[in-house]
Design a protein that fits this description.
44% of the residues lie in helices and 25% in strands. The protein has 6 helices and 6 strands; from the N terminus they run αββαβαβαββαα. The protein has helices spanning 2-13, 32-45, 56-62, 78-87, 116-120, 131-148; strands spanning 17-20, 23-28, 49-55, 70-76, 97-103, 109-114. The longest helix has 18 residues, at 131-148. Keywords: Signal. It holds the Pfam family DUF302.
Length: 150
Amino acid sequence: MKRILIAAAMVVAGSAAFAQDGLIKLKAQGDVPTVMDALEAAVKDAGATVFARVDHAGGAETVGMELAPEQLLIFGNPKLGTPAMQDDPLAGLYLPLRVLVYSDADGMTWIAYEDPAAMLDGLEGIPDGAEYEAKMQGALKMLTTKAAVN
């Protein structure tokens, strides 16, 4: 039910984003490194901590394989994530948050992330409608939207 409501809200808002199976995808302007730089800057400007930036294509190159440009940003804010882990320690499997910026077969750049409500939905200790889920959703939407139009 949460997924349907999220998708409906995005359609009503006229956003370029769409949700499918708990994943939210947003078209972005620019190449993968440029969009990822914008996302990383937005995360830092918001006061969150960047834990890692993973270059999947660069990793593939080190073993003689090819992969379209794809980078993952791992970041978080203990004020948002700690309450979730207090409610259910298994939330630590999903946190800190992760956002993927990638290029598809047509050369389009996309930003993708898992909706926090869908991500935490299967955990027994996470109450429905937890305030931190909404805060994570809002933060992800704001940060990715800002990066998409860099």
